[in-house]
Automatic annotation (TrEMBL):
PROSITE patterns: HTH_LYSR. This is HTH-type transcriptional regulator MetR. CDD domains: PBP2_MetR. GO terms for cellular component: cytoplasm. InterPro entries: LysR_HTH_N, LysR_subst-bd, MetR_PBP2, WH-like_DNA-bd_sf, WH_DNA-bd_sf. The lineage of its organism: Bacteria, Pseudomonadati, Pseudomonadota, Gammaproteobacteria, Oceanospirillales.
Amino acid sequence: MIEIRHLKTLIALRDTGSLVEAAERIHLTQSALSHQLKDLEDRLGCTLFIRKSKPLQFTSAGMRLLQLSDEVMPLLRSAERDLDRMAGGEVGRLNMAIECHSCFQWLMPTIDSFRNNWPEVEMDFTSGFSFTPLPALARGELDLVVTSDPLPLSNVEYVPLFRYEGLLAVAKQHPFAQKHFVTEQELAGETLIVYPVDKERLDVFSRFLMPAGLEPVDTRSAELTIMMMQLVASGRGVCALPNWALTEYLERDYVRSVRLGQNGLWSTLFAAVRKDSLDSAYMKDFLRTAREVSFRTLNGIQPVPIGE
């Protein structure tokens, strides 16, 4: 009566708090997800969550099924890994690099989980601001690259992980702190604090300022996010970062955030993988683990819509 797909649906609904986002996360239409839930409720003879509640609230029956989901799904994942190992899929290499310099908040727990589950897969990690990892991936020197800036490489597949919004961090006393969003023209009048990479690789330039034919008054670089936040808080400039990277500093009331443009500046984070590696069991498991850990640990991210 209760199927694995039902448990996955309930977990997605709990994690996102929204029928729309839950449907996107498990790659269903909202109509199909609603029909699935209604069918399950009819089978069980009870409702599982309160319609139109904000935030979404589960009934006692729904909470019991969520408890079952949290017990069953890890066991299922463990069994799938064991079967993959029995089929000889446990030996391999996973050398990775990141172009997203504030990804460690979710990437490190992902790597820890993966190492525990795939101890015989050799792992290595490369990072650096002067390093260009995507060509190295195409040449076979790397196996996975985390990036928000895909390049058209014939033997590389870009697997979407999640969508995120880039926000502008400003000092609490900055005039922007009272605004809902800033325009390209307003940002052009500021000193922009950035990571030391080519500006074409930064969304705030390539997708916000450059299309408007604008440049900031000045730029200043810093290698660490915490250094950037210290400069912002002391009024030395403003800084564009992913929403999740600012969570800690906003919660501690160090800085304020404002949207880039009226509709916000949204981007997709990808895992770039060579096409000949996509079918390996450990690569599939790493990508699945990365998504799960991301949605469990990060605030403000969204599933990538079907078809994107």
